[in-house]
Amino acid sequence: MTINLVSSIITIAVGLTYMIMAFNFPDATVGRPMEPKIFPIMLGIALTILGLALLIQELMKIQKNKDKETIKLSFGNNGKKIAITVVNAIVYAILFNILGFVLSTIIFLEVELLIFGGLKSWKVSTIVSVLFSVIAFIIFNTLLGLYLPKLGQYF
Fold it and tell me: C-alpha distances in angstroms, 39 versus 25, 109, 129?
């Protein structure tokens, strides 16, 4: 079993789960009732379709290489990065309502950028994570009118 095969199955499962959960979102009280559900449903559909495409591609590749050698599940050098990213995402989800959007996103992005960019680029990583978090917060709160959790909102 290859990493792409496992990834495709996980992506399909996440996409379907996300789409089903999006249908359970509450209807909007003002305007069109389905409005808050549209983007999450589209995201779930896109994840499912991309997962299916990767699954088909990988199954075709396995069929083509069937006679050659047994394909093994191997994460290679990226296994540690994947594991840290999964733990980082769980910590981000926990901290999101506690620290608010800006601080939790800065921490999440900083860790991810350091994982994939290395410790040498910590200054650039810090600048990117701070700027992205603050600009995204401003865009969501002022331009889009979607209010994200602030620091201390749930204390």
Answer: 12, 23, 25
How would DSSP label each residue in 23-78? HTSPPPSSS-TTHHHHHHHHHHHHHHHHHHHHHHHHHHHHHHTTTT-------GGG
CB 96 within 8 A of CB 27: no
Name the residue among 151, 154, 155, 146 with its Cα closest to residue 100.
151
pTM (two decimals): 0.52
Q: Would you kindly state where each structural domain of the chain is located, as residue ranges? A: 1-74, 76-155
**Looking at residue 52, what is its pLDDT?**
92
